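Comment thread on ticket #2218

A.B. wrote:
> Attaching the input chain for the structure job we discussed in standup.
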Amino acid sequence: MSTTLAREAFLAAFRWHDGHADVWRAFDDGPTFAAIIEGLSAPWLDSGITKVVGVESRGFLLGGAVAIRLGVGFTAVRKEGALFPGAKTYVETAADYRGQTRALSMQKTLTSADSVLFVDDWAQRGAQALAVKTLVSPSGAAWAGMSILVDQLDDATRDRLARVTSLVTADELGDPRG
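C.D. wrote:
> Ran it. Output below, let me know if you need it in another format.
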């Protein structure tokens, strides 16, 4: 039920602007935002998750809220150039849908006792998600999967990411050209 409400709330709030996706509108209304967080969290409530991981910036917003809902900690992944104290692991992503790569870092705080859920807004090619999975791996933590607003992954990439839950698929968002 909560996933259905979240899906409907997200679809009602989502807009295309000049061919660009505007997911930020979904966070502008308290009840809509709450429904979305519930929808991202619900499939994972009984999964033994101990940490949620998110990449700045929407991954911080969504991941932090999902971590609170699941009653677990949040682990930040920062993009190149961000101040981030302590020992870190680093990885460079494969090219995203725009052909860009990004250097990502994460503090070395995960342990082999952790079960990790990655939360983000949209996965087109999965470059960022696969890079985060690579960051998690040296810690020995278990990669449980990912929860996203919009799934645009191909089947082969989705299989590499273990369990993937989403509110909608990109095809459900209509034509970006209006």
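A.B. wrote:
> Thanks. Noting for the ticket: The chain has one domain: 43-173.
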